[in-house]
Design brief:
Blueprint lengths: L1 E5 L5 H10 L3 E5 L4 H9 L3 E2 L3 H6 L3 E4 L4 H9 L4 H4 L5 E4 L5 H13 L3 E4 L2 E2 L1 H7 L2 E6 L2 H6 L1 H7 E8 L4 H29 L4 H8 L7 H12 L8 H18 L4 H15 L10 H9 L6
Parallel strand pairs: 1-2, 1-4, 2-3, 4-5, 5-6, 8-9
Antiparallel strand pairs: 7-8
Helix pairs in contact: 1-7, 4-6, 10-12, 10-13, 10-14, 10-15, 13-14
Amino acid sequence: MKVGFVGLGIMGKPMCKNLLKAGYEVTAFDPFAKAALDEVVEAGAVRGESNADVASKSDVVITMVPNSPHVRSAVFDKGGIAEGAKEGLDIIDMSSIAPLESKDIAAKCKERGINMMDAPVSGGEPGAIAGTLSIMCGGPKDLFDKYFDLLSVMGGSVVHCGDTNGAGNTVKLANQIIVAVNIAACAEAYSLSTMAGVDPEKVFNAIKGGLAGSHVMDAKVPMMMDGNFKPGFRIDLHIKDLNNALDTGHGLGTPMVLTSMVQEMMQWLHNNGCGSDDHSAILKYYEKITGVEVRK
């Protein structure tokens, strides 16, 4: 199986490397990440000259780019995947985009004889490096079955969420809402305990095994207490996901009260120079208000 990989950012680069380690023949390209492209070529990938070139040399092309317009551009612009695609090419879009955009892009691909599945991920850079991402797939079940083994190289959990394109991205939005609100709740709770004079590390150790415990708490609270906001998943990318969630919720008539509140915190952080920080930096919003740092 010949695999194309388009998009070698903080997530795409280690995902591509895991495919190479598993023995897949990969042609890669990213016009905005020359150093990352050089790195995956050094690891064994073939250097693509354009998205169209990648498609012409591949049976399936994986896209891992920031948002809906970038997927459209990668597929349909001059020099795009559609331009180089052979009849029957499959695209697995692992970007996190709006579900209705996934559905529309997939329909336009179908008109050109290209099959598409959306397969957004959760797990951040550590999961991408370790190959333990949660992968949420939307689209025809036969396409999911065809590429289950391929996706399993990059993910510890690979789930078919529905036969409709966009189902995977709907699940991803649900994931991003829960993660964002959970991080904000941790930031608020640990700010409270610190201001009350209780060591946040002791709070963490006391409650992490109970009902309040979560993977989010385990991963993000230690970062908060260390003041380590090196991005595993950037504030700006979470803003993008919550914007998609809000747009989708508004279109469906679903109340998005908690999502909108956390989105305002993240937007404040973006406006104050923290957009490239890890989303655990929601803590900085509380630290600014209270004037008290949460550190062990």
